[in-house]
Specification:
The protein is α/β, with parallel strands linked by helices and 303 residues long. The chain has ten helices and 14 strands. The relative contact order is 0.13. The protein binds 2'-monophosphoadenosine-5'-diphosphate.
Length: 303
């Protein structure tokens, strides 16, 4: 059944006794693009599901997550600040989520709560769509926080060599060590942003540059990560996980240098599509989800 119907001149969601619930737990959750993205996919497929944002305080994640079973909710996404805190409350955790130490998708599998992390698949999805092969590539990844973890684990698993660049070198070293012990043969080395010579050399030999830091995110649109702009070259694909603004200063500079560029909209859509498939066993329409995200961003003034 379609997810909305016209009645007396207004659109009503087609909620009935058989409607199944999906959602996102976050705090804050008001700016999440996931409800629009998932409800668009639900409508396109004609499923009787509804995807709802739940504002869950950090200290309430335990009871909230267990309520999924008692309320018969099919599954939820998790966003800030729940991705790491949720682990003790789950019955099972998929290997990638366990390795990364964070869960962004929970599935109620016949009363068992299973945690997944689809961020790595979200990161790889737009590259696969471009037929961009990661194996054997050299990637420079900026940042060593939560977002970097999924990216680095996926890159080394796909046999790409990684140079991790972070403001705090010790944090990069820790992540590199974890990636090396999780994936046999993982090639990861680390640099600080202050090592300009090292950074120039790494960028000259790289095919992929990924920004996982928040530098350049709205409202700080004029900022860019501290790399030498003259080191950007046309053989480099520059992938910024930020989607607001859709073209960060880093991407604008990269485009001017002749690089191919990707923003974070694709990663958002592909991580959502992977979650949707876990919950429903159905691959959702990527183009519909992407259009819904673009509409939301445009409505929020991020043209
Ligand atoms: P997320 O989960 O979004 O990755 P995070 O865990 O707070 O967020 O990590 C943010 C990343 O952006 C870190 O790598 C951080 O560098 P530090 O480890 O040195 O803190 C990086 N970052 C944030 N602001 C930065 C800035 N102004 N310059 C350089 N790096 C910055």
């Amino acid at each position: 059944m379609a997810s909305s119907e016209r009645q007396g001149g207004i659109h009503l969601p087609s909620v009935n006794g058989k409607t199944r619930i999906l959602g996102v737990f976050g705090f804050p959750v008001e700016h999440s693009l996931s409800p629009a993205m998932h409800n668009a996919a639900i409508a396109a497929l004609g499923f009787n599901y509804l995807y709802i944002p739940f504002s869950v305080l950090p200290e309430d994640i335990g009871p909230a997550i267990r309520s999924i079973v008692s309320l018969g909710i099919i599954g939820v996404n998790l966003t800030i600040p729940h991705k790491e805190r949720v682990l003790p409350f789950l019955d099972r955790i998929a290997p990638e989520a366990l390795a990364v130490g964070a869960v962004n998708t929970v599935h109620n599998d016949k009363g068992q709560l299973v945690g997944y992390n689809t961020d790595g698949e979200g990161f790889a999805g737009p590259l696969k769509a471009l037929c961009y092969e990661l194996a054997g590539k050299r990637a420079v990844v900026m940042g060593a926080g939560g977002a970097a973890r999924s990216v680095v684990f996926r890159l080394v698993r796909e046999n790409a060599a990684v140079t991790l660049v972070n403001r705090t070198l010790s944090r990069a070293n820790r992540l590199a060590e974890e990636a090396r012990s999780a994936v046999a043969g993982a090639q990861v080395d680390c640099l600080s942003f202050t090592d300009l010579a090292g950074l120039r050399e790494a960028l000259a030999g790289a095919e992929l540059l990924v920004n996982t830091t928040s530098v350049g995110m709205s409202p700080h649109d004029n900022d860019m990560p501290p790399i030498p702009p003259e080191s950007l070259h046309p053989a480099l694909l520059v992938y910024d996980l930020i989607y607001s603004p859709r073209e960060t200063r880093l991407l604008a500079v990269a485009r001017a240098a002749g690089c191919k560029t990707l923003n974070g909209v694709g990663m958002l859509v592909y991580q959502g599509a992977a979650a949707f498939e876990i919950w429903t066993s159905q691959r959702p329409p990527i183009d519909v989800m992407q259009a819904a995200v673009e509409r939301q961003l445009a409505a929020a003034g991020n043209q």
